[in-house]
Amino acid sequence: MPATGTTLRVLARVAGRLYRDLPRVGVLCLALALTLDAAAGSWRFAAPQQRLFRPLLADPTEARLAVTTNLNNRLNGNIGASWEAADYTWDAAGLLRFRTGIHAGVFSKLRWSGTTFPLETADYLVGFHADLGNDGMTGRFEYAHVSAHLADGYDGPERAFTYSREYFTLYGSYAREARRGTMIGSVRVYGSFRWSNHAIPDVRRWRVQGGAELVSGPLAGGATRAYLAGDLRVFRDGDVAINPTVQAGLLFHNEANRGLRIALVYHGGRSEHGQFHHLEDNYGGVGLFFDL
Questions:
Q1: Backbone angles phi, psi at 163, to 5 degrees
Q2: At CA 86, angle to CA 81 and CA 88, rounded to 5?
Q3: pLDDT digits over 84-124, tens only?
Q4: Alpha carbons 149 and 151: distance in angstroms, whole number
Q5: 267 within 8 A of 243, measured Cβ to Cβ
Q6: pTM for the full model?
Q7: How many CA atoms lie within 13 A of 181 on its CB side?
Q8: What is the enclosing helix (H) or strand (E) of 34?
Q9: If one looks up domain 3-291 in CATH, what number appears?
């Protein structure tokens, strides 16, 4: 089937799933909104802003724009973004905030073949999120759908099968400044628990995650910073599996934490791509990440 036809079928399936689940998610978001006292704070709707719960640097399942090569013959190409629909601030200082929106992403694996890059598989993600927190403590509630599909460029022994799931995830993180001499950086620790209420095939029903991020102060007085980030995901896929991911590199960010990252990347354990979920995927490589 042509790639365009496959993409349209995937988008139609995702839209249908979200349409069926939208009433439940809408009721939940409405209940959260009604608990807020509008007289005590202020609402903003559709105002350009970043996510309150900052994207996890080393998590390979974050919806973002990135390219990672394993220095062999494979590339991971990700396209993703988040749109914040509404923001509520309890007081003028803005110390405690509530923010909600939607996010989506495509996670693809390509084969490096000379000057061409045949697409082997792609995972499609779309979800709703609601964040709560301040500068130090932040949390996120997320409901998302993901499906995975083999592409026309795959020529291996695996056969395509239905891979589809919806899941709820609860995140929490704590961040603070870290001082070393005259340099001020930051440190962040986080954790999450995920439960899948629908899964085809019946694997990875749950996932426990933890990690840490360490960012240095400005190097040479500029906008460049060094960082080290580690992420660990534990789940059951036949047996209990552990997937570690580590990044070490440089950030070129502005004051709004938008910019570019270049890093050495290590990934271990099972594949994060649904069609290859039962296969080992251990590699080291170089990644280019665009934090928009």
A1: -130, 110
A2: 130
A3: 999 888 876 667 899 999 999 999 999 988 788 999 999 99
A4: 6
A5: yes
A6: 0.84
A7: 4
A8: helix 3-34
A9: 2.40.230
